[in-house]
Sequence to fold (277 residues):
Amino acid sequence: MVRIAVSLIALLSMLGSAVAQTPPAPTAPPAQAAAPAKPAPKKAAKPKAPAKPAEPATSGPCGIGVIAATQDPFVVEKIGLTVFGNEYAEVPVSWGLDDVVFARVRAAAGATPVRRIAYAKGTFDAFYHPKPSLFRNEREELSTLIRQIAGNAGCERYVVVTRGEGVLPGTNLPLRGLGMFNRGIGIISYTFLYAYVGVTVFDGQTFEIRKGPALTLEGVVKHMADGFGQDPHLHKMDNALFPATATDAANNTILRDNMRDFLTERLDKILPPYFAP
Fold:
């Protein structure tokens, strides 16, 4: 009996030890949380197209039709001590001089509707470079030309700005249109821009030339005051700005800006009397 009891105790002891060493059943790993959905990419906003610059009106009421005809040639002249040292050249430039003309007429016109009248390249060639004639009628030529350019525009009147002509003070040398000259030799020389423009107003129905602003004592005195000490058509420049060759002027931005500014100054003095009430 004692042996049986001892054997049972030993067997129970071995079973308990085996149970204690049995590893626990594996548990399932926790479910992974679902990855958050990526937000849909936003479409880039399309850049807005830049606003187009305002263009001159081509329809609607037309109080004033503007025909700007300086045509952008820039004259470069070298005036020597004698006529044998003189040089003259007309340089084609793209300086927007007729754009300046239109802008200043529009400014002078105030609230009056203004329209720029376009014309084909070369339209004024015969007017500026006429065939030799003893009996040329420049006013009649210009009137016929403006009638053709205006066509059916139907403006009440037309303001035409053309290249004018003057004379170098103290000489009989002509200065035409817009340009510059250098006179003298070396350090004994001087350089000027010049601006000679003509303003002519035409009746929109008959195309007859209207009378210009009436001369008044006040206007004469103001003109004398403006020109005191220097011809108002001239603007002094540094000799260093006179181009080595005439064609160099076309790419000179300093000359361009000075010419545009000087033309603006001249037009702002010439135009207002044409629009006075």
User: Anything to note?
Assistant: Confidence is low (pLDDT under 50) at residues 1-36, 44-54.
